[in-house]
User: What shape does this take?
Amino acid sequence: MLPHPCQNVNCRVKETCKVQKGEAVCVPDYTGTCWGWGDPHYHTFDGYDYNFQGTCTYTLSTTCGNLTGLVPFSIVERNDNRGTTVVSYVRDVEVFVYGYNITMIKYQNGRILVNNETNNLPVYLNHGQLTVTYTGSTAVLTTDFGLYVSYDYNWEVIVKLPSSYYDSVDPQAFMNNCVYDMCATNGDRKMLCSALASYSNMCRLQGIILKGWREKFNCPMNCQPYSHYEDCTSPCPQSCPFPANQPTCEGICVEACVCNNGYVLSAGQCVLPETCGCSYQGHYVKPHEHFWTEGCQQQCECDPDFRTVVCWYAACAANELCILEDGLRFCRPITYSTCTAAGDPHYHTFDGYYFNFQGTCTYQLVALCSNDPKLIPFTVTVQNNHRGSEVVAYTKVVNIDIYEMNITISKDFPYKILVDGQVVSLPFYYDNKQLMVYRSGSMAVVEAGFGLRVTFDWNSLVQVTLPSTYWGAVCGLCGNYDGNPTDDRTMRGGGIASTDEQLGASWQVGQTVDCSSTCEGSLCQGCSTTQMDVYQAQGYCGIITQYYGPFWACRTYVDPKPYLEDCVFDACQYKGYHGVICTAVAAYAVACQKAGVTIQAWRSSTFCRKFVLHSVRIS
Assistant: This one.
């Protein structure tokens, strides 16, 4: 007679050997459940209920003490406020097990982070010992030793462990918590629906299926395209990348949005089976999805025709670093540099060369001048005009040509922009936010996905910031961004300019009525040194270099000398007009803040009181 399969099996404490499919298996005597839901309300493994509204990071459960025969793990959650500081909600859940860090984040349905890198579901790790699947609208993590963690991407986390005490579900606790949440949110119906859903889920775990409550209380589950609601369906839906080869599914049915007949799940979306993506080292990759391997040594793409991930050798450029940020690995520029045109205007190139040029035509500030196919082309031009003095000019219009689109920021349209000639209110977004234009304080801010940033105060201060990927690949009044300021006097034709006027005129790309790149006649005579010295006093431009003044902490980060000189030059031309001085001082303030320096308050009731757009008009 053959011995019983369990005869020589030594199970752990609170486990019993049972025969399943002809093999001896150690089965937990019972399973304990802990959950956090709502604002949040907590229920421990041993049945204790309490409320806690902290918004930090907290340990839900972790192994402690003697772990003989047990796999160590830790589960933490982070909470946040949503609309009110009275209550908080589960923002994300992080599980540490088998050497992996698994993070489930709110609203990121169908995706998780594995060791801080974004992965589509399902995910199979450690030779199947750790699995994360998408069930209904919930991410479910399971292990071979019985750990179960689910998060609904909104506010409910459930943890189940083998061989821990668990009592029955108490409806009174859910009733009390529901009343608390409804009161704290002024009767928000979403709170009622979420509370009822949490109670329904707890009952379901006990094998009790509550049906019809969503219709009765008007709490529909909003389903994505090509799916429909079912109140009791398989917890293992057909999913990519192998919809025809699904694992044997066991467990209690779930309520979920189920893909319509002929469709399967792909990273939380219902798609046709023939459009599934690829499997790569236990991870699901959507069709045509690109990603970098560790260290950015290879770039890979899912080829949907062959259902295979194709990789090729690649690397970041010499002026880039491989980083992992927000779950994505990519090459990031090592540095950024900013070119500024401020005041009348005074130009500060990417490489730190300073010059003055008062032309009133349209000029190329910066543009891509390289044939490198990896760089996205763009052009930034400026149009200048006189304001009360023939000696100086100010930037009036900034034009940005990018993504086959023209963005115009003009002094004539304060706090608005023109897109291909049409007036548009801010903010403005294009191509899934690859291009954004918004207002920040008094500045219009244009940001492109490849790192370009242009700001203009609708008055006279324009700044262009570029990543180091454009090193040596640009040209214009801002120079070529190669780290060498001595070659920033290069003209459009290639020669070296002998004067600032010659340099500026060479980059003229357009004309306006009565515009000129030169200033001639008696009206063009500048100030003498003696006249300019007057405006270095603290009541004028001297505040920039004032000993222990509002900008004192900035002096070691941003050289104040050229900003002081620019301010004094402008102030003298306009005979001390405060609007001009305030504009010049603001340019230094912006430069300091861009360098990350905290400056003190420099505006007061007697100095640059108002922060408004102004026009210079002097008779």
